[in-house]
Amino acid sequence: MGYPAALSVSHLELNNNNNEMTMTEKRFISPSPVFSDVSTALQASLSQAKEDGRITLGVYQAATTLENNLEDVMLCILAADDFNNLELHIHFTLLEAFCWENDISLVKVDSSSKLGKLLFDGNLPANDNDFAAGRINSLRPLDCVLIQFPKETISPQDKKVLDFYKASESMLPRPIIDLPE
C-alpha cells in the first residue's frame, strides 16, 4: 500500500478570547520526495517492534521508560490529534523537549485512534494499564509509543523512519505522518 509523496504539516494556534484559552490545528500538505512512503515504513517498524516486544505504550509509561532506560529508546511516536486536551499537550511538550535534549528521534502521527488500530486492531488496551486491571471500562486512544532499538541491526523500515526524522528535524512546525484508516 503506497502513499503519495506528501508532507502533512500542522501547527497549533493558541487563542485567548475573554479568558477562555483554545487551541486549534492549522494543517497543510506539501509534496516532498524525501518523505515518500514514510507511513508504510512506520507501519512496518511498529509491527516488527510489537512482534519483538520492543514497544512502550502511553505517556506515563513512556516517561518512566525514558527515565530508566534512555539509551534503549530508538523512536518516540506522538499522536497529534489531541489538541483540545491541554494536559496531554503539556505532557507532549515535555516529552518532545526531553527527546530533543537526549537525541531521541521523535515523529508525530495524525491520529491516536489510527495508531491504536494499527497496533491492536481496536481489541486490546492501547494506552492504560487501568483497563487491564479493571479500573476503567473502555479503551482510550493510543497517544504515545516508544520503540526500543532492536537486538540485531536496524531494519530498512526503521532506517527510513529515522531518516525521515533527520530530514525533518529542522522544520517548524514539525511534519505529521498520515496513517491509513
From TrEMBL:
SUPFAM superfamilies, per database record: L30e-like
A Pfam family per the record: Ribosomal_L7Ae
Some GO term, biological process aspect, for this entry: which one? regulation of cell cycle
Any Gene Ontology CC annotation:
nucleus
Q: Where is the Ribosomal protein eL8/eL30/eS12/Gadd45 domain?
A: 41-119
Under InterPro entries, the record lists: GADD45, Ribosomal_eL30-like_sf, Ribosomal_eL8/eL30/eS12/Gad45
Which family does the record assign?
Belongs to the GADD45 family.
PANTHER family on file = FI09246P, GROWTH ARREST AND DNA DAMAGE-INDUCIBLE PROTEIN GADD45
Question: What is the protein's name according to its record?
Answer: Growth arrest and DNA damage-inducible protein GADD45 alpha
Name of the gene encoding the protein in the UniProt record: LOC106170754
